[in-house]
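Hi everyone,

Forwarding the result from last night's run.
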Amino acid sequence: MVKKKSSLFGAVALAGSLLLAGCGGGGGESTSSGGSEGGGEAANPEFLSVLTGGTTGTYYPLGGAMAQIIETETGIDTTAESSQASAANMTALADGGGQIAFVQTDTAFYAAEGTNMFEGEVIDTVSAIGALYPETIQLVTTEGTGITSFEDLAGKSVSVGAPGSGTYINAEQLLEIHGMTMDDIKAQNLDFAESQESLQAGQIEAAFITAGTPTGAVESLSATADVAIVPVAKDKADALIEKYPYYAHDTVPADTYGIPEEVPTVSVLAMLVVQNDLSEDLVYDITKAIYENTDKIQHAKAAFIKPETALEGIGIPVHPGAQKYFDEVNQ
């Protein structure tokens, strides 16, 4: 399920990803051929597990709603499971620890290419269902810390995400574009809930949070403290996107967490992935269930989940069942 990196595979995956990033959508060219390993070996299982993230993030509530929808529409018992999110979810699916998972698009690309937290190991038994919504990189602090820029992080205690997480890589790359490394800060490997608690207690001074806004952990923090989001200047965002094209410009809207003005930042995309060996018919039904019942998802990010944008930014193969659905509805 996980195999040593092949230079040919990596080159093909990289070329495909850059093409997709450059055109901003149209995942069609990279879909059916790469996903051809899946789509038929497994009959419908008796149980489906949807791997999400921490209970205070965005994946968990969305996953719970989607699990209910999938169970209702397919008749298969489906449960949302909390997890360590993107990187852990890719590994778990490859090892058979779940069938469906939430993953950042950048993390899925690293797994397919065998880079960063997947250095030397390629996961090629997992394919995409589709993109969901922007995952905003939020550098969260509180009033009184004196942190108003990335440069102010020097020497400070900063949560950079759970070890091996997508958030950790986002933090590393944003520090890099600001001329810094992890050695310039006192890096703390905390998940979102731990980051919230540590900021409240004054044990850390800032935290990287990569999640859809509003994020539960940051909302909880804002109930007891004045939250501030550190901006990413346009020139820095442009430089980041040029080097790592799976990023996009984004903002944290005014009034989120009580902040008075919109704050510029960057984002990656949240996506759903699935084990390749689930049948084409089942994945078609799962995809249809999710994208045609977003009105049943009581979260602000549901408004972003649309079939017409589901293949944008996808840098890994799309499962044939999902591709079949999008081909039908996006004619």
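The two ends are 34 Å apart (CA to CA).

Cheers,
N.
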